Amino acid sequence: MDVNGKVAVVTGGASGIGRGMARCFGANGMKVVVADIELGPLDEVVAELSAKGVEALAVRTDVSKADDIQALADATLERFGAVHVLCNNAGVAVSDPIGETSLEDWIWTLDIDLWGPIHGVRTFLPIMERQGEGHINSTASMAGLYASASLGAYNVAKHGVVALMASLERDLRLAGSNVRASCLCPGPINTNIVDSERNRTPESAALHVGTDAGQKFWDILTRQLSEGMDPDDVGPLVLDAVVSDRFWVLTHPEFGKIVDQQVKAMLDDQRLTR
Ligand SMILES: NC(=O)c1ccc[n+]([C@@H]2O[C@H](COP(=O)([O-])OP(=O)(O)OC[C@H]3O[C@@H](n4cnc5c(N)ncnc54)[C@H](O)[C@@H]3O)[C@@H](O)[C@H]2O)c1
What we know:
Helix content is 49%, strand content 13%. By secondary structure, it is an alpha/beta fold. Strands 3-2-1-4-5-6-7 form a seven-stranded parallel sheet, with helices on both faces. Helix 2 (39-51) links the parallel strand 2 and strand 3. The N and C termini lie far apart (43 Å). Bound molecules: nicotinamide-adenine-dinucleotide. Residues 11-12, 14-18, 36-38, 61-64, 89-93, 112, 139, 141, 186, 188-189, 191-193, 196, 199, 225, 228, 231 line the site of nicotinamide-adenine-dinucleotide.
């Protein structure tokens, strides 16, 4: 797709990877709708884009709510008359072993990380089909391709996002659609995701159990992410997938080795891991 002058919607666009995408799309001639639940950073990103001459719109959105995603689509069409690229990117993470993950943590994670992209596809796909053009990208994770210990709810959500996007892309190709789908699977990126709870209600946060195993994993993750890729370097990879009609967007292709090893162990002797 030639993106110049086209319209992009980025959820979770007020921080980290989403903010990087919004900046990259704006720098490449797109009009950008930034959707996020966190109002202060949301307004800052849109002010920054506008100061650079980008036509930008902020829409406060909770991606876990279908009505909010519908309102996001309505606001986008009212302002810009079309939507060509949707990035279902908003996400949160919490760490605990599966057996000790509270019901509230399951619901919080799946509502945002999996239902967010499902609502996005259900709402925006018909608009793009009517236009005869469009591209939907969702942010999964390497955790969508390989399920590590102590990150169960997140792994389940991200495996779901990978399945959603792969199913969508195959459905679209089978139907001869001009709409394309792609899936971003980042490795460690230096963002604010380790502070995901900042957007959680106190009532919901109080129901997080918090285990030693979860905390240990979180400490390692926090260190890894602080040394991770600059989020501004991810946007150009997503843009490239949109422009070149590619499905997978991998920030750390070298991590594919662990996926490879898992498939090899499965085919060799049906074990999960050697
Ligand atoms: N940082 C990493 O290493 C990494 C790796 C793999 C995947 N990811 C994924 O990347 C995506 C972006 O995360 P990030 O790392 O940039 O983190 P981040 O915390 O910097 O950004 C996430 C954004 O999502 C927003 N958000 C949270 N809940 C929301 C809701 N209910 N509705 C709307 N917006 C909401 C936050 O306000 C924030 O602006 C997530 O889907 C995350 O799972 C991140």
